[in-house]
């Protein structure tokens, strides 16, 4: 079974990834709705990557934040919103390293 990509965020993020061919796209508002959908998706073994609005992450419950920070699978990737400004996203290379256990950019 191949792992799937899920996207959770505002309408602009969801639409962009849906147009790019991602099928598991969930439009949510910041807050409880986002947290509930994020919990559901990270507990679903079919997903290997979860892409979320980066600006949604600072407001989530600290326990969920800690769980995400310690997850190796699925990898949760925060992307900048439509403004393009990044708040606290991790470097993509670091996320891949965390998921795979080694640095793919090293020879």
Can you offer a commentary on this structure?
A 4-stranded parallel beta sheet has the order 2-1-3-4, with helices on both faces. About 35% of the residues lie in helices and about 20% in strands. It is globular, with a radius of gyration of 13 Å. The termini are far apart. The relative contact order is 0.18. The protein is built from 4 helices and 4 strands; from the N terminus they run E-H-E-H-E-H-E-H. It has one domain: 3-Layer(aba) Sandwich (Rossmann fold). With about 110 residues, it is of the alpha/beta class.
Report the top-level CATH class: Alpha Beta
Low-confidence stretches: none
CATH T-level topology: Rossmann fold
Tally of domains:
1
Mean of all residue-level pLDDT scores: 81
Could you give the topology of this structure?
Blueprint lengths: L3 E6 L1 H9 L4 E4 L4 H11 L4 E7 L8 H9 L4 E5 L12 H9 L7
Parallel strand pairs: 1-2, 1-3, 3-4
């Amino acid at each position: 079974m191949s792992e799937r990509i899920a996207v959770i965020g505002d309408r602009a993020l969801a639409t962009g990834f849906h147009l790019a061919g991602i099928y598991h796209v969930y439009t949510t508002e910041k807050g409880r709705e986002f947290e509930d959908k994020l919990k559901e998706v990270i507990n679903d073994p079919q997903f290997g990557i979860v892409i979320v609005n980066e600006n949604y992450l600072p407001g989530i419950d600290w326990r969920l934040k800690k769980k995400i920070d310690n997850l190796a699978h699925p990898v949760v990737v925060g992307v900048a919103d439509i403004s393009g400004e990044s708040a606290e996203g991790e470097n993509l290379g670091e996320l891949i390293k965390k998921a795979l256990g080694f640095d793919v950019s090293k020879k």
